[in-house]
Amino acid sequence: MHITPYNRQYKRAISDLLFYSHFSQVHLDWHDPDQWLDQNETLTVTAWHHEKLVGVMGASAPFHNTSWLRVLAVQNQIDPKDVIPALWEYLKPSLSAELITCLAVERWVQSLLPHIGFGYYDEIITLRRTGFDLPKRPPISGLIIRPLEHQDLNTVCHIDTQAFPPPWQMSYDEIRQARRIAVISTIALLDDIPVGYQMSTLHQQSGHLARLAVLPEMQGKGIGAMLLSDLIMRFLKKQIRSLTVNTQATNHKSQRLYQTYGFQRTGYDLPVWLYGV
After folding, report:
1. Which CATH number covers residue 52?
2. Which of 87, 124, 236, 241 counts the highest number of beta carbons within 10 A?
3. How far out from the chain centre does Cα 46 lie?
4. Are residues 8 and 90 in the same domain?
């Protein structure tokens, strides 16, 4: 087996591996694999055996000293323990980020991460609400919530990086792609100053609050709640009564907000692992 950097001529072989292999994990949020590979080709490595692709590993470009392992796959007839450590040893020197994280969506990935130096860091939990009821909220003087426009993206990126610590921040490219996919994206302005935003997607008959952020100095003033109320009302006008959201198990503040709106944990939790823990 030999390891090589990604080359665009490998794209078809990688696509087939990701689609057909049982040992495949893709955690790309807003991008499809082909698009993501072209943007992160310098941080993707491949494993070959007798000219056949047997494994691939890819990480996101560092953003605020954080990289995520986004793509991991191994050919069906091969033990991942024989491929993933070799891919990691080849990729690791290319990662300049201080924080290297991985969301363990698949059990086989979770079982391998400790063997390459990762330790448990946090948990991503899922909450869901249904129905029409909303808690009553007094209006906030000077607050306006309007649709988010392309020209707001730089401001939204600033809000996001201020509202979340690493490794939970989103890059400008991720925010831009998220807005393209979102069915409802809004921004909150207090006395004409942007203070928060949200982006939400729709799958079948269920909405998903993909991102909600408020500037730290404006938190605790009800702005996040107003963004959430406005979002729910917009979904209800579309006859969408079900809404899900993900947050960190350690983010108790956000959980209290969502519980106020009738969100309950679904039990679908995914561990986040951090290299070097």
Report:
1. 3.40.630.30
2. 87
3. 24
4. yes
